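The step that takes the researchers longest sounds almost clerical: writing a folded protein down as plain text. The outcome of that step, for a single protein, is printed below.
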Amino acid sequence: MKSLFLLVAITLFTLTNAQSQSKTVTETLKVYGKCGMCKTKIEKTLSYTSGVKYGEWDVETKMLTVKYNSTKVTLEEIKQALADIGYDSETHRATQKSYDNLHGCCKYERPE
């Protein structure tokens, strides 16, 4: 009886652990910016975004790699958080006010 209980407990633990790991998603997307200050601001915003586990933005390529828990945050919410602080992506555009609030060295050429 104890063996059966132990087997069931191990099976449930394994299934639960596998399900929680499958909720982690890694995406790569373009986020417009210009400099090291942009990198710091983008990555800091991601670190404060609930559900985001990791984010790294490359200054040269303008590509952001983000790893997040898809049950806590969506890619759309991540893009919106970045737009809210002034950074455009291919699908989300910052308001003019948010863009204007960027430091002078961070003013990138905005996509059409």
Remarks:
- The longest strand covers residues 24-30.
